[in-house]
From TrEMBL:
Residues 266-285 are annotated as: Disordered. This is Diguanylate cyclase. Residues 24-277 form the EAL domain. It comes from the Bacteria. It comes from Alkalicoccus urumqiensis. The chain holds residues 364 to 648 of 648 of the full protein.
Amino acid sequence: YAAKESVHHTVQFYLDHVHQRVDAFRLEHDLQAALEKEEFVLEYQPRITVADGKVTGVEALVRWEHPERGRISPLEFIPIAEETGYILPLSSWIMEEAFSQWSKWKEDGMELQMAVNLSVRQIEEEQFIDRVEALLGKYQVPPASIEFEITESVLMYHLETSLQAVRELRRIGCRVALDDFGTGYSSLNYLKTIPADVVKIDRSFMKEIPDNAQDTAIVETIIRLASVLNMDVIAEGVETDRMLSFLKEQHCFGAQGYYISRPVPPQDIPELTQSTGQELPQETL
Ligand code: C2E
Ligand code: MG
Ligand code: MG
Ligand code: MG
C-alpha cells in the first residue's frame, strides 16, 4: 500500500510539473496574439513630491487582460516576453501608449513627469534611441518629461549596454531613474558611476519603516547619499502615514505607494492630481 501511495505521489508530482509547463507554454502562445487583440492596458501610479504632497508624476505600469484567465501580473508575463523577444514589440506599444497619454493630459492642462520602465532587450537594440526620439517628436513630448526606469540588477548584469543607454537617453534630454535600488550588490559603487537623475528606493526596505532600526538606517543613508550625488530620491512602497512622515522628516524628495494611490486607469489621474494634499493627513505634509 505504501509503495502504491508513493507511486501515486510521484505521478502527481510529475503531472503538476507537466501542467505548469503547459501553462507557461500557453501563456507564451497567447502572448504572441495579445498585442493584436488589444489585451494590454496601461495603468498609472501617481507619485508625490514629499515636501508639498502634490502629485507631480506617474509611473506607467502594463497590465494584461487575458480573456480567460483575467488580469495577469507583469511579474508573470514580462519574464516570458523577455525570453521570447516579444518584449520588443510590447515595449514599443507601451512607449507609444504612454507618450500619447502624456500629450492628452497636456492638452487638458496637466504636465506630469511620466516614468516608463525599460527592459534590457530594449536598450540592447541599436535603434532604441532613434525610436525614442521619433516617438517624442510624434507626440510632441518634451524629453525632460519622460523618466526611464532601469533596475539596478539590469545595470549590474549589463553594465556596458546600460551605461551607454543611460548616457544616450540623457544626451537627448530624457531623465533616468535607478529602479529597485538596494536589491542588487555593490550598490554604492554603482550609484557613483551611473549618471542617473533619480534613485528609487526598493519597497522591500520600506516595509518595516519606521519600526525596523536597520531598514531605517539604510533608507536614511540612501536618501543622504542621493543628495550628496545630486540625485532625486523616491521611496517606493509607501503604504502608511507613518512611512510618509518618516520620509518627510528625512527630506526625501518623492514618494510612491498604496498610501498615496494604487496604480489606476488614466481617466482617474486628473482627479488625483487635484485632490492629493487635502486628502492626505495634514500632519504628514
Ligand atoms: P516596478 O517598476 O518596481 O513597479 C512598482 C511595482 O510595485 C508595481 O507592481 C506596483 O503596483 C507595485 N507597488 C506600488 N506601490 C506599492 C505599495 O505600496 N506596496 C506594494 N506591495 N506594491 C506596490 P506591478 O505593476 O505588478 O509591476 C511589477 C514590475 O513589473 C515592475 O516593478 C516592473 O519591473 C515590471 N513592469 C511593469 N510594467 C512594465 C513595463 O511597462 N515595462 C517593463 N519592462 N516592465 C514593467
Ligand atoms: Mg519601475
Ligand atoms: Mg521599482
Ligand atoms: Mg519593483
